[in-house]
């Protein structure tokens, strides 16, 4: 007798033991970082509800920073603190910005979690000022590393060419259009600007890099790197100097 297939989980089902363990591991990723912050429930939910396992403290900091500066009222609060150059208490901020103290309290909480302001208590008042030390730390850790550690355009091109060229030969034609464009622009350096080529000459040059010269030739026409008319081919525009694609 064939056993029935297990049914799909339904809303209200209790998590399995493995699911409990996975949820615990997921929460543990942030426990050390979040323990020193005055987290709101929405902050915790944003970090714990999902996300790739490679999330780091830097990613969590960036998430909270982005949330802190994504609202116009919070930007106005920061601008006011910069302009006044002194600590201000909540009621004072609310009066300057013509909003209720409850509204100010909500936005101050998010700014503090984002690491942009500090809170100091004096008698019955809570004073807020820019957390210049932490802002400097955020600048050094989040913004000083080449656009959040993303490669520059030149670095991106070099990486693509390093993958698709080995010993001066093209390994394969990239399927992704952006990568294919980088490869084709590199091949275009083998042609002279202002010169007309017939199909045999174009194929001969391209075969130095890849056996399927016809596919490369068609791709260069499709990407408008070269133009074709009456069996003649020529570059659309001069190409910048070639990168080192030796791999």
Topology overview:
Blueprint: H1 17-34, H2 41-48, H3 57-68, H4 72-84, E1 88-89, H5 90-97, H6 101-113, E2 117-122, E3 125-130, H7 132-143, H8 146-149, H9 153-164, E4 165-166, E5 169-170, H10 177-187, E6 197-198, H11 199-206, H12 213-222, E7 226-229, E8 232-235
Antiparallel strand pairs: 1-3, 2-3, 4-5, 6-8, 7-8
Helix pairs in contact: 3-6, 5-6, 9-10, 11-12
Task: Supply the helix-strand structural class.
Answer: mainly alpha
Ends apart, CA distance between termini: 59 Å
Globally, the shape reads: rod-shaped
N-to-C SSE string, H for helix and E for strand = HHHHEHHEEHHHEEHEHHEE
Strand order of the largest sheet: 1-3-2
Mean pLDDT: 77
What Rg is obtained from the alpha carbons, in whole angstroms? 29 Å
Helix content: 40-55%
DSSP strand (E) fraction?
5-15%
Number of DSSP helices?
12
DSSP strand count: 8
Poorly predicted ranges (pLDDT <50, ≥5 residues)? 1-9, 29-39, 46-55
The biggest sheet amounts to:
3 strands, antiparallel
Q: What does this protein structure show overall?
A:
This protein has helices at residues 17-34, 41-48, 57-68, 72-84, 90-97, 101-113, 132-143, 146-149, 153-164, 177-187, 199-206, 213-222; strands spanning 88-89, 117-122, 125-130, 165-166, 169-170, 197-198, 226-229, 232-235. Helix 3 (57-68) packs antiparallel against helix 6 (101-113), helix 5 (90-97) crosses helix 6 and helix 11 (199-206) crosses helix 12 (213-222). It is rod-shaped and about 85 Å long. It has 247 residues and is mainly α. The strands form three sheets. The protein has a three-stranded antiparallel beta sheet. Strands 6-8-7 form a three-stranded antiparallel beta sheet.
């Amino acid at each position: 007798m064939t056993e029935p297939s297990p049914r799909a989980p339904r809303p209200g089902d209790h998590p399995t033991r493995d699911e409990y363990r996975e949820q615990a591991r997921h929460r543990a990723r942030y426990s050390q970082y979040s323990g020193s912050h005055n987290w709101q429930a929405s902050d915790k939910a944003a970090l714990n509800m999902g996300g790739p396992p490679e999330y780091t403290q830097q990613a969590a900091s960036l998430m909270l920073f982005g949330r802190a500066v994504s609202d116009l009222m919070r930007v106005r609060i920061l601008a006011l603190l910069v302009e006044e150059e002194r600590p201000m208490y909540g009621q004072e901020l609310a009066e300057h910005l013509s909003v209720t103290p409850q509204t100010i309290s909500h936005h101050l909480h998010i700014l503090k979690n984002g690491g942009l302001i500090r809170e100091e208590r004096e008698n019955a008042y809570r004073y807020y000022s820019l957390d210049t030390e932490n802002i400097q730390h955020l600048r050094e850790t989040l913004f000083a590393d080449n656009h959040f550690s993303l490669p520059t355009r030149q670095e991106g091109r070099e990486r693509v060419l390093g993958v698709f060229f080995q010993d001066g030969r093209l390994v394969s034609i990239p399927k992704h259009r952006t990568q294919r464009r980088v490869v084709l622009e590199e091949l275009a350096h083998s042609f002279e600007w202002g010169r007309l080529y017939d199909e045999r000459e174009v194929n001969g040059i391209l075969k130095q890099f890849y056996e399927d010269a016809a596919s490369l030739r068609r791709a260069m026409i499709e990407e408008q790197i070269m133009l074709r008319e009456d069996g003649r081919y020529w570059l659309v525009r001069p190409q910048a100097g070639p990168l080192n694609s030796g791999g």
